[in-house]
Amino acid sequence: MASQNASDLVAVYKAIFIELPTVAAKKGLGVAKENELEAAAWKGYDAWVRLVNDATGRLYQTPLFGDLVGRSLDAFLRVQRLSNAVSGAFFAALWVTVGIPTATEIQGLRAELKYLRRELRLLTSGLPVPSAEEEVLAERSAPIVRKKKREAA
């Protein structure tokens, strides 16, 4: 594994400091092959990814890293809760200042729009339009009516 890391490190340095500048100069002069620059870049990229994956794997295997993450997890969660609360308070005040409606206001508008659509359908069909109070009573009694219909069936 150490020899693979050493060869990957050499490949990265070779790609960055030798191959890429050489191929870029060739391309600038118009003598480079069609995909020579991309091939050199991918070669260096692949070696870099192998190095980083190996280093990350070694880091995760160390007991010290596990202990540090385990101890700091509680603090990270507290900071996250605090930042959520602060951002919630900040944005609640911001929406009012900017004039953007809140979620509750949007839900109220949707309910009103639903009622207006229903009223428009009833008006265009020629059926009598119930008052708002009758509409509320019908919505509240709808589950009871459905239950009685199921029991009767």
Outline type: elongated
| Average of the residue pLDDT scores | 83
Major pleated sheet: none
Rg value: 33 Å
Number of DSSP strands?
0
Report on this model:
This protein is mainly α and 153 residues long. It folds into two domains: 2-61; 102-152, no CATH class. Helices cover 88% and strands 0% of the residues. It has five helices and no strands. It has helices spanning 2-29, 36-61, 63-98, 103-125, 132-152. The longest helix has 36 residues, at 63-98. It is elongated and about 85 Å long.
What's a concise summary of this model?
By secondary structure, this protein is mainly alpha-helical. It folds into 2 domains: 2-61; 102-152, no CATH class.
SSE blueprint and pairings:
Elements: H1 2-29, H2 36-61, H3 63-98, H4 103-125, H5 132-152
